[in-house]
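Table S2 (continued). Query chain:
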Amino acid sequence: MKRAVIIINAYSALPTGLNQAERLKSEFERLGVSADIRRNGFFASLDDGGKLVNTLCGYDFCVYLDKDKYASAILEMSGLRLFNSHAAVRVCDDKAETHLALSGRGIPMPQTVPGTLCYDPQAKIKEKDIFFLEKTFGYPIVVKESYGSLGKGVYKADNRTELEVLCEKLKCTPHLFQRFISSSAGKDIRVIAIGGKAVAAMERKSDTDFRSNLELGGTAKSIKISDSLRNICELTAKTLKLDYCGIDVLHGENGGYLVCEVNSNAFFGGIERVTGVNIARLYAEYICKQIYG
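Corresponding output:
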């Protein structure tokens, strides 16, 4: 009997996340694969001697829809094949690490610098760091927490006062600074890639926010994937060794494209509705081909 397990976050109650798992379960069962949906928990651990205990058994593979890098590492150590892999999830969960992994690979991205790490809440922000950021980027400056999704933890500083406030707020939180791309303010492109191939794209737009996420009230329309957009997104997915991902692309100043972020567990409900592409089916078919041939 063909069996799969779909692991979701232990606590999340987001309807979009639950729908993701249910859609995949339905498509797997259409292909003759029995699929269980389970919340992440203490089914994967190591004993005092480093021996694996309480791991999931009897499954051919796992669709890992969580970002818990510790659980994903242990599951892979047990021999279970994960889609996406532990390494891919770990890199994509950290926006700064994603940028570093894509750097030097011919993938255009907004200029980005990681924030300096601070471990003392009482420490003062260094004025020379503010000067450096102003000289490097000018205003506005995009400031992002390294961990976060759905547009959360993404801010914009329009002047020194706002920048100082954000630097103080995030000084003990991993974060980064990024050049604001005015030609893409309030709009971007979300591309879904499966098996390193771009399969659907939509342009998102917001009239009230510099962020275009649908979850923040943005709207979207289906767009054709041009050759240049396809090449950039497929190179991104292959570089990060992602089986599945959502790639957020900005409109560059000169008509080109800039990869902004990559989400290893991008929700596909919105892009399915907008484009009519059955993302869940394509992903399930891809996985079954990888596992069963």
